[in-house]
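Summary for the steering committee. The consortium agreed at its last meeting that each partner would contribute one worked example illustrating the joint modelling workflow. Our contribution is presented below. We chose a case with several input lines so that the handling of multiple components could be demonstrated. No manual editing was applied between input and output; the record is shown as generated.
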Amino acid sequence: MSENFSVLKKCPLFAGISGSDFNPLITCLSGKLRRCSKDETIIFEGDAPGAVGIVLSGSVRVTKDDYFGNRNIISEIGAGGIFAEAVVCAQAEASPVSVTAAEETEVMLTGYSKIVTSCSSACGFHNRLVMNMLQVLGQKNLSLVDKLEHLTKRSTREKVLSYLSEQAKRAGSDSFIIPFNRQELADYLSVERSALSAELSKMQSDGIIRFRKNRFELIGK
Amino acid sequence: MSENFSVLKKCPLFAGISGSDFNPLITCLSGKLRRCSKDETIIFEGDAPGAVGIVLSGSVRVTKDDYFGNRNIISEIGAGGIFAEAVVCAQAEASPVSVTAAEETEVMLTGYSKIVTSCSSACGFHNRLVMNMLQVLGQKNLSLVDKLEHLTKRSTREKVLSYLSEQAKRAGSDSFIIPFNRQELADYLSVERSALSAELSKMQSDGIIRFRKNRFELIGK
DNA sequence: TTATTTCCGTTGTTATTCCAACTGATTTAT
DNA sequence: ATAAATCAGTTGGAATAACAACGGAAATAA
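What follows is the complete predicted structure of the assembly.
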């Protein structure tokens, strides 16, 4: 467990909580650990909201499938990220999305009240936790707006450019690695895989991007 | 001002705060009132985050325009709803969206710290406010996921059906009124207005919906 | 290594959307 | 009441995406 502490310290949910205060907090939260193999589902669409999840290692995907097996990837959450917090905070009756491990992954599941309610013990950091939770929720909101922006674009090329631009911005560099293979990127941008491949090729021959596998480069001007 | 109180009492942000506790709370928040005429912009994309907005009367639109004037409507917020809370909570540097009055509208603008920080006075309801804020943020998250679902649909018909189904669910009835005219619905679903009109007509002649102006009816089998 | 599976790019056909332009209807302003 | 402006539906042609199917490359398993 101790090797997970370094991840938790980088988790935005625990930002601003200093080293010596850390152990009692984690003890107080007392989450359950779960180890998942690739493609294992952690939360099924329709499940009653339970705990808030924290990714300790690996990564998870938030997805939604339509009635005919078309998978749509809503977001990708890496180590240190949290999931299911929105459903829990909203006090929804059922989760509108599924969460599955994108690779070998370890998660911690913690009850909402443990995070949000001041406990009777000496652990006095819940207020900070709540503030952090507000920030995380706000940021997720903005991320969803980012994704919305990609999807509102009419053509595949525009969608791809919108996505790649955002990734470049995040990476702080024109060259970056994306966390998706082609099929997954297609599922994320809601386009056909073959059309995506074709468009990527065209964009490369047009000289506006370069790529090899999952490494992409935007060619400025 | 007193006629606004009834709206504020229905505002989810103030849920669970009883009548007698209400006045001191509102006094404590001491928001600025602003009256906006139709199409007046309250927040410009790129603005530094300031206050959290509460719609007292009328309604506002959250929008984002791309570089060539294509407007996209992200959401519609009626009386009692709040806006700009995500940007503020996320502590973002700039708002990624604009907010404009959809009609003659009155809003209250309140500093984030006023809502979230316990004040020195006897006003002890901030904790409840924060919990409510978590819930509102969570629900907005789920709303964005709903909208994402519409946009991931490939055809105009599917997008329309996805949207109308959600509206019917919200209304709790197969017959309901939507808050958009045709152009606005097109901007919301990210399709062509003319294509939208054509598809609506087809869907009606196919016998799966009926509509007149902004009133729609889903015809279940 | 060999076999198997997964992944990715390509192509041609079909289906849909986008776009522009026009008309009639409704609403708003004078 | 009349004029002007906005809104909604329709149509035809141009552009684009979806779909299906294939082949080769790369990764994985045996």
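The radius of gyration of chain B is 19 Å. The domain at 153-218 of chain B is CATH 1.10.10.10 (Arc Repressor Mutant, subunit A).
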